[in-house]
Amino acid sequence: MQNSSPPKGKGMQKVMAALEGYLYLLPTLIILGVFVFYPIVSSFNLSLTRVAPFGNQTRYVGFENYQRLFTEILEGGDYWNSLKVSFWFTLGTVPTGIFLAVGLAIALSYPLKRLSWFHRLLIFIPIVISSAVTGVIFRFLYNPAVGYLNYWLTFVGIEEGPNWLASKDWALIAVSIAVVWRQLGFNVIIALAGVQNIDGTYYEAAKVDGANMWHRIRHITLPLLSPTLFFLLIINVINSLQTFGEINILTDGGPGQATTNLVYAIFVDGFIGTPLRGFASAQAYLLALIIVIVSIIQFRGLGRRVNY
Fold it and tell me: How far apart are CA 292 and CA 308, in angstroms?
């Protein structure tokens, strides 16, 4: 009976080809292992411990840090306040940012199509500005004595503008405005790509049927833009839950923890005063879990309504 197995030479060639392929991936795997996988595992191990203030003693406490977090949520403690701040911050920045981006994208595609390169640059330039620079710019704009924002308000009849960064009622709004502006360039680029990808024959047919601009936007642009809107929603929610730079520069989480979101709470507990590194690591893992759950909810709830 004839043996149907491949010759040993060809088998070795396949093995060597496979090993060669893995060798090409080895640098990437090493970088991911050092800078991604190891920190993830190390942070989880740290969340199961209690570290002495100067880091010279570490004691295993199991899930005590996570239990403390859930206790604070149930009793309305500091972590519950951070959750509320993150919720209101996300609710304020995400819809506003997407609405402005889509409006500008539609305007740049049709009514403002002939804008000069300089005016387009003013819209897109925030995409290259870091959160720290954004915080410095808006800290100057919000200054109650020499800031331009309150000066501009006098032109619309508001003689005494709010103390943006020192008021509990206005601090979170002030940070939200800065974040929306910084993310606007990225959002407009994505939305503009989605608008310009829509086939123009749909609009021509709608014009023949007598549809005005609002009807074309409502019944053609927005439905066909749903994949782009869904992508922007996912990205903006994640970015809002991870916002840190503007809060650190503008308010330091104040006044009175009015702008202390989940990420800033991790920073305070992990690095400010007497560090609680195990507790901060538990917060980081809980934040990651929250982001995953929110993303799954968005995919399950809104993903089916997207028109691909």
Answer: 23
Residues 138 and 294: their CA atoms lie apart, in Å, by: 30
Beta bridge partners of 58: 51
CA distance 295 to 308: 19
> Which residue is listed with tokens 């925030």?
126
pLDDT in tens, the chain (308 residues): 455 555 556 667 776 776 776 777 888 889 989 998 998 899 899 999 988 766 667 888 989 999 999 999 999 889 999 999 999 999 999 999 999 999 988 888 876 666 667 777 778 888 888 899 999 999 999 988 888 898 898 888 888 888 999 999 999 999 999 999 999 999 999 998 899 888 888 888 988 888 888 888 888 888 899 999 999 999 999 999 999 999 999 999 989 899 999 999 999 998 887 778 899 999 999 999 999 999 999 888 887 777 76
Q: How far apart are CA 285 and CA 291, in angstroms?
A: 10
Closest CA to 226 of 198, 203, 206, 205: 198
What pTM does this model have?
0.87
All domains of the chain in start order, with CATH: 8-60 (no CATH), 72-305 (1.10.3720.10)
From CA 132, how far away is CA 136, in angstroms rounded?
6
**Residue 250: exposure state from Cβ atoms within 10 A (0-12, 13-18, ≥19):** buried
CA gyration radius for the chain? 26
Task: Give Cα 65 distance to the centre of its chain.
Answer: 26
